[in-house]
Amino acid sequence: MQRGPLSIIFVFVIVELLGFSLVLPLLPYYATAFQATPFVIGLLGTSNALAQFLGAPLLGRLSDRFGRRPLLIVAVTASLAGFLLLGFARSLAMLFASRIIDGFLGGNIAMAQAYITDLTDEKNRARGLGIIGAAFGIGFVIGPALGGFLSRWGYEVPAFAAAGLSALNLIWILAALPESLTAERRKAMAMNPRPPVTAGAMFAALRRPCVGPLLITTLFYALAFGVFTSSFSLVALTRLGLAAQSTGYVLAYVGVLSVLVQGLAVGRLARRFAEKTMIFAGALIMSGMLLAWGFTGSVPLLVVVLAPLSLAAGVLNTVLPSALTKAVSPDEIGGTLGLNTGMQSLSNVVAPVLGGLLLQRLGAWSLGALGALIMAGMGLFVWLRIAGPRAPNPQGCAPATDPTTGIESGFFTTSDV
Hints:
- The chain is mainly α.
- The chain contains 16 helices and two strands.
- 78% of the residues lie in helices and 1% in strands.
């Protein structure tokens, strides 16, 4: 791994996620200040997810053609604009506009994943992508607590602080971040450009024997986990009586767990177990912990449940994109990671609205029960299609070959341990 650029992207993701986590836990409270119902709050999350579903694959494909650095600049600039609009919001319409802008053009994490993929080989891929998870955790250790503290002076204050962090990140990219794609690779990709991202291309990707099962797993995992994350603040408020600041502290604890899992544990697990096995185990653990969360009635019990839940989420968030990069050719990596983000966003179109409706009609228990049911079904799917001994051996999925180095790789050729 090239440690210099990886260190730069690590700091970049920390700053980006710090800004994001400043405002994310406060959005339900911010929207409530404009008399938004739980359903409308769910729509706020849906608008961001739908915009990201449309924008992320496009940004990823463009990064395959023109390089990661220019598209990272576009993404950070969009995040800056979105946070500024959020800070100046004086109506629900402005809140929605801020989330749509950030969603369509703010594909920072997918771009960072593609950047790290360019700098890592197959052996170190999961460990390298774990950097993003660790940076995500560090951002969430500080961001929610700081956002809750700043919200004492108004919900717009954390938004402006997040905008300031995005501005710092933009300067950081312009001054220090080199391009990860070599001139030779960009030339090779330009000579054989991929077609534009369309609905037909997305369905074609889902039919590919190696890529399809991984994308479907991402889709439903993101739906189950999205119901949890989008409703967490509201559940903490309605069931546990936690104010914005206390919720921020709980999310900071989740951030510490994310650092430990994705920064330390995932790399070691990847050296011992096949990625297929880790995906299957993560699905089962996630199912049990979401069910437990749905019936959690105290803060101490919540703290206990969040530990294995964070372990499962850390594994799935890291290993799924790592596996995808090994199932496609190098000139498809950016587009495929963008499509993976798009699958997550498609789930998040439904998750906030579904979570808001279930919470309003049935209560918090139904959120955990639904998430557990989805992940149990997903575990069965993973066993049948990816991880189990009778899983079909995908045909027509030759190892991906780098057009400039000739190096082959392949997720489905990895043996189980």
